[in-house]
Design goal:
38% helix; alpha+beta
């Protein structure tokens, strides 16, 4: 499972909070690979995904959070995707 965090760089406090959160979840779930997506390096891809805010989180290439979630929300979504695949997408907002 690949989790990508949209980052505007080390000076972005929201980005750093998102990266720290994803790394905390990754410590508990060994299947997670964490990558930072720098806005300037991946601007076109982010535009295609309609991501216009730093700190957004993508899981396996899909936008899952446009703002930094709580640890529990991120962990819950990771567990859903690991156990049910992408078919649980419709359940996420319930």
């Amino acid at each position: 499972m690949l989790i990508e965090v949209v980052s505007a760089g080390p000076g972005c406090s929201i980005c750093q909070r998102a990266i720290k959160l994803v790394k905390q979840v990754a410590e508990e779930v060994p299947q997670i690979e964490v990558q930072e997506i720098h806005v300037v390096d991946h601007f076109e891809r982010l535009q295609e995904l309609n991501i216009f805010s730093a700190g957004a989180i993508l899981i396996n290439g899909k936008t899952e959070f446009v703002t930094v979630p709580t640890f529990n929300k991120l962990r819950e979504r990771v567990d859903e995707l690991l156990h049910h695949g992408n078919h649980s997408q419709d359940q996420r907002s319930h």
